[in-house]
Amino acid sequence: MVVIAKCRFCGGSAAYYIEHARMHLCENCFIEYYERKVYKTLVKHDMLKGARKVAVAISGGKDSVALLEVLHRITSEKFPEVELTAIHIDLGIPGYSEECRRISEDVCRKLGIECHVYDLRREEGYGIPDFQTTPFKKRICGACGTVKRYLMNRIAYEIGADRLATGHNLDDVVEVLFELYLKGSVEEIVRMKPVSWSNHPKLITKIKPLIELTERENMYYVLARKLPILSAQCPLAKESRMLRRKRLIDMIEKEIPGFKHTFYKSHLKRLLPKLEKELKEPEIRECSQCGMPTISKTCSYCKLTTKLKQKLLNQTSTKY
Ligand code: SF4
Ligand code: ZN
Which site from 81, 175, 190, 252 is most exposed, i.e. has the minimal number of CB atoms within 10 Å? Predict the structure, then answer.
């Protein structure tokens, strides 16, 4: 006999199972649960307090697509004074970036949200695959992360946004925290929080509205709201330590349901306030090359890309 699980809230046929809460939900109750949870996170951390223009970083992947949809619904209903806009960076990765861009543009069009597409190759003269010819070839995802973080902040600043929302989820944050606590990297641990308030006019306040939702919950939301799903995989992605750590954390979660939530909450409520009291905030200055905020003389983006851009420029000029 096949037993069909019932929704915890309405008693209808369940479509999804939320492991950490050990509850089955039907599609409609899941959507309500998800959107309520994001709303509560926004309010609990004052993420939209005083906000006028929120730039949403959209890559085309499930987390950012879910983020744009849910923020669109919540702001239209509860924060009508907030304008939403989206930023997509075309990373120039053949066989992958095309689909990421198409999905991002389609979702924005459907929601009536302006999409600022930044074409890395056209605007900066290089694409992420070009790092394969540099000493960063073994850490290409790290280089890609630096590029995205820097450009997202710069574009958000240039378009006059006062918040930058990213789709970081609970799995992402716990994976990073796990590594940082192992290494004892206290300066980096204090940066892992739901809101990073700006302390420089060119630094945009970053918010993570999905920080209490798991990767799986974001996937369920994309399915339930019938949003497009990215099928292409980045050809530069390798079996990274990050993926191995995520698998390990999933194994712990299986043995200790709720482990990820407990870890994150202990960090946020118990350790973070103590560490923040102990540590002095680093002094922010402006990069000697690009003028954007940094804690050293030259920002990490300029350090990473100056030589690459020069090399590619020289190659082009010797061709003609
Ligand atoms: Fe960038 Fe790595 Fe993601 Fe590919 S897998 S888009 S290189 S971070
Ligand atoms: Zn710089």
Answer: 81
